[in-house]
Amino acid sequence: MTDPKKKLVVYDTTLRDGNQAVGIGFSLNDKLLIAEKLSELGVHYIEGGWPNPTNSLDIDFYKKIPKSLGKTKIAVFGSTRRPHCTCGSDDFFRMLIKSETPVATIFGKTWDLHVKKVIRASLEENCAMIAESVAYLKKYKDEVIYDAEHFFDGFTHNPEYALKTITAAAQAGADCIVLCDTNGGMLPQALTDIFRSVAAKVTIPLGIHTHNDSGCAEANTILAVAAGAVHIQGTINGLGERCGNANLCTIIAGLQLKQGFKILPEAQLKMLSPVSVFVNEIANIAHNIRQPYVGEAAFSHKAGAHADGVIKTNESFEHVRPESVGNTRRFVVSAQAGSSTIMKKLAPIVGNLDKKDPRVKSLLVRIKSLESQGYQFEAADGSFEILAREMLGLFKKPFEVVGFRIIEDQLQSGNIVSEATIKIAEGAQIEHTAAEGDGPVNALDNALRKALVKFYPGLKEVKLEDFKVRVLDGSEGTGAKVRVLIESSDGADLWGTVGVSTNIIQASWIAMIDSIKYKLMKDALQGKKDLTGRRRGPKGRAL
């Protein structure tokens, strides 16, 4: 029987396992942004990656990330020491110590097939590697989590040896042993039977880590909890190698809303949908609208019997309340969907705004119109705030763009030189200037800053941190719409802006202008009273 009083912890491995998915390549800044968002969500552990001499990205991540983010613990990942060496002489293993994280997670071999044919060690040596590695790490870390790789396949083929490997980890002092379905091929009944068998023999906490190659990752994880697991590993949106990892969005919502587990505070559970969208935007992939709980279509209803039933009583066609996971009920023919979400976004901008205020309705209509054109504001907070303030009468455009031109020249050497000329109107004053850049967008960015910096010196602080382009409808070929997401920083804050067009230069320009406007708005509000009468903090946030 499931005991809802049992404490469950969530261990997120999006930054490592998720980053191993085909088509995903998080930058250092991406990983830091996602880690901050996961901490806000309230996951208990964030695994940042596998630092080793050949992976400078993850080494840099652990240098920059705080050792804890609020109540969230940062975990470093790696393997047991390699065969025929010691923990202290293994360069890869020593990097786990250098990370200085409070938690270390290491994996070791459970399946005798891997021991003999992959790492080419004896069965006895493999157990020694596990025990020595756990014991060595316990000298330096507050917690050591042991991932029993390929556990279920190993147990199926040689249960005695599989148990022997995790016993070695337990006796060496592991704080938790995670049983992994690394190949993702286990079906629910077989996995549950094995997990119960192990839980009856092991006294330390057990965890579960599943992949989705048989389409059962979420079901297997939830059943493992029923069989005794207290530690849940997975990724946001199920990102991961091959068919992906267990989807934490589905698992957290299912366990908390349907089985009564208190995994996240209610307010943070409502962040689940926005975080899901945010991670996909940072990953630069389309959000799965049919994803359970957090997809746009999860609570969408077309006109007809379903819509009529939901209008009369929500539970007739909805298994949970969409608001519980931060999602929104949508009717294809209704203009009311999404108002509560907009109100939440407006709250830190304008305080106690009345939902019936006609400006709110106008903003909602405008947002929905833009979203129908391909805009997405979850990772473009800067564009949303600029739009909202302009429509609420709290911000006026500080300058006008009279026009711009881009010239591309291919030199005899074969190099292409991009030059942008731009004309800006600041009040009655016209500034006309030009700049070169590495490509047309960079040239435009340089010209825009050059034209404006004499009026707004603070723009010298702004740096373009990231630039992402996604084709929204590949069926149109080169005439397809593209969405450009820009991340900018002034050394104190980071903000996202978005532009959409069939012309990639125009989409980039829209996002770029919003980025500059956001910085100017932020500087105008910083340390002063804005039009809502609230004081602003050192980063422009409401106090």
Walk me through the structure.
Helix 5 (123-138) runs parallel beside helix 7, helix 8 (188-199) runs parallel beside helix 9 (217-226) and helix 17 packs parallel to helix 18. The strands form 4 sheets. Strands 1-2-4-5-6-7-8-9 form an 8-stranded parallel β-barrel, surrounded by 6 helices. The chain has a 3-stranded antiparallel sheet with strand order 12-13-14, with helices on one face. It has 18 helices and 17 strands. With 543 residues, it is of the alpha/beta class.
Helix-strand layout with pairing:
Elements: E1 9-12, H1 28-41, E2 45-47, H2 56-64, E3 68-69, E4 72-79, H3 91-98, E5 103-109, H4 112-117, H5 123-138, E6 143-149, H6 151-157, H7 159-171, E7 176-181, H8 188-199, E8 206-210, H9 217-226, E9 231-234, H10 248-259, H11 266-269, H12 272-283, E10 300-301, H13 305-312, E11 330-331, H14 339-350, H15 358-372, H16 381-391, E12 400-410, E13 416-426, E14 429-437, H17 440-452, E15 463-471, E16 482-489, E17 494-501, H18 504-525
Parallel strand pairs: 1-2, 1-9, 2-4, 4-5, 5-6, 6-7, 7-8, 8-9, 10-11
Antiparallel strand pairs: 3-4, 12-13, 13-14, 15-16, 16-17
Ranges where pLDDT stays below 50 over 5 or more residues in a row are 332-337, 528-543
- Please list the strands of the largest sheet in the order they lie side by side: 1-2-4-5-6-7-8-9
Q: Count the beta strands.
A: 17
Percent of residues in helical segments? Answer: 25-40%
The geometry reads as: globular
CATH class of the largest domain: Alpha Beta
Number of domains: 4
Tally of DSSP helical segments: 18
Average pLDDT, to the nearest integer? 89
From the N-terminal CA to the C-terminal CA, the straight-line distance is 47 Å
Q: Supply the CATH superfamily name of the largest domain.
A: Aldolase class I
